[in-house]
Amino acid sequence: MIPVLIAGGGPVGLATALELAHHGVRSIVVEPRTEVSWLRPRAKTTSARTMELFRRWGLAAVIRERAPLPVAWSDEAVFATSLLGREITRIGGCFGLDLAGDDLVAEPGQQVAQPLVEQVLREAVAASPHASLYAGRVEGMREDGDGVSVTVSGREMRAEYVVGCDGSRSVTRSAIGARYEGRDDARPNFNVVFRAPGLAERVPHGPAVHYWVLSPSQPGLVGRLDLADTWWCIGQGVAGDADPLLLVRALVGDDIDAEVLATDPWKARMLLADRYAGDRVFLAGDSAHQNPPWGGHGFNTGIGDAVNIGWRLAAVLNGWAPPALLRGYEPERRPVAERTIAEAAQNMATLAPEVTDPRLAGDDDAFDEARPSVAAAVERAKDSEFHSLDLVLGYTYAGSPHICDGAGERLPHRWLAPGGESLYDRLGRGFTLVGDLSLPAAADTIKAAADEGIPLDTWHDPGPGPDPRPAPESNGLALVRPDQHIAWKGEGDPRAALRRATGHA
């Protein structure tokens, strides 16, 4: 019997397999595509939090080395009348791209197209002794008391557990009787990937992660996929029957010669599954939630799902937690998705058409007259879209059945040495006790973990020295879960805290 079968081999399915492999648990990822689809990049922002999770698997550096846009290339969004037109305003510090070396994070964000991330994850799965990729399509499944029978391209497989990462048309979601709740946005959008040699040298605004085009005739945005000649653009309010070359020329602001490589019409969706789990089947990524892309949260939320359900399944399958631990997945992850959908929808409420002004297309006097009010409107409306670390890093699992009172947040990060050693690098693959290990409660916690068979690493951190630094613990200690969230802050009975954190209580 397969310990975990994962339906869907996109980034979330592959991440689930790698989290399980991180804990020594075997899985099979079932995916109909034999190769990564490179021409429709869709997600382009990998958040600082996702990069921290990739660092746990040793992949953050690999992704940065292979990303065509170095993280230092730009952290700015430029708003202009066209790619080659007049600049209106700009916003800096976007998407956590400016956080390299900052104590706030172990990894800054990274602009990189989703297919490249997926390829790196595929290679890591292929190299793992615990994970494998199976070419096939999940067609149905049925839970019973001992496992899950899964039909894969006409063949039946048996698994102890299934994680459905099979997207918006999820067979897994249907199998557990879950359904989406929410709505689609009425406005159409049209993505184009194109090649335009020599265009980069003509852009007057310098490097940017996004160039927003505030043009009454054709609003949208443009960005680079690499530092050569490949670009992407989104026409806002553009239907799928549009001429892609004309759209590119309108957003660029010139009748350039461009080779259209791919097109992708779409509408934003604000959908959340009414339930995330059966008894042995769980939903993650787009099978559980979909949100508008504005703010770059979509696949990043799915990676958070993968890590959360992955370490739980590993704990159960490795024998140090009961199946009750799995019941904490939905109450922790569903509220995060709900908040993400709401914030992305708020970002979508003000797009390029809402902040443009016909005077911007006029002569210099008309442009100068309109520019201050438009710039102010952009900065008010879009600040939270580009500066969303309160969501990306600040979500908590407070209120979870497996989090003790007063805990639930991500362990505050800091660098331990100038050479790049992170506090997170000192955390174990199971639980980690961080803080002043000379305290009596530390010895009690270590003994309780040994008695209960719970894997526990320790990191002695006696408290702030001459330089101030984050102090996550309220009583000198913090019990940190495998996903870097704090389960307990050292107050009360350590054994009870460990039992609660692992689903025994």
Could you please describe the fold and organization of this structure?
There is one protein chain. The protein has 13 helices and 23 strands. With 505 residues, it is α/β, with parallel strands linked by helices. Among the domains are: 2-68 and 107-182 and 270-347, FAD/NAD(P)-binding domain (3-Layer(bba) Sandwich), CATH 3.50.50.60; 415-501, Glutaredoxin, CATH 3.40.30.120. It has an 8-stranded mixed beta sheet with strand order 5-4-12-13-14-11-15-17, sandwiched between helices. Strands 1, 2, 7, 8, 9, 10 and 16 form a 7-stranded mixed beta sheet that branches. Strands 21-20-22-23 form a 4-stranded mixed beta sheet.
Q: Could you describe the largest sheet, including whether it forms a barrel?
A: 8 strands, mixed
Q: In total, how many beta strands?
A: 23
CATH architectural arrangement of the domain at 2-68 and 107-182 and 270-347: 3-Layer(bba) Sandwich
Per the CATH scheme, the topology name of the domain at 2-68 and 107-182 and 270-347 is FAD/NAD(P)-binding domain
Q: How many whole angstroms does the radius of gyration measure? A: 24 Å
pLDDT < 50 runs, ≥5 residues: 465-473
Question: Percent range for helical residues?
Answer: 25-40%
Question: Span between N and C termini?
Answer: 29 Å
CATH class of the domain at 2-68 and 107-182 and 270-347: Alpha Beta
As laid out across the biggest beta sheet, the strand order is: 5-4-12-13-14-11-15-17
Shape: globular
Structural class from helices and strands?
alpha/beta
Beta-strand residue fraction: 15-25%
Q: Please, how many helices?
A: 13
Report the mean per-residue pLDDT as an integer: 95
CATH superfamily of the domain at 2-68 and 107-182 and 270-347: FAD/NAD(P)-binding domain
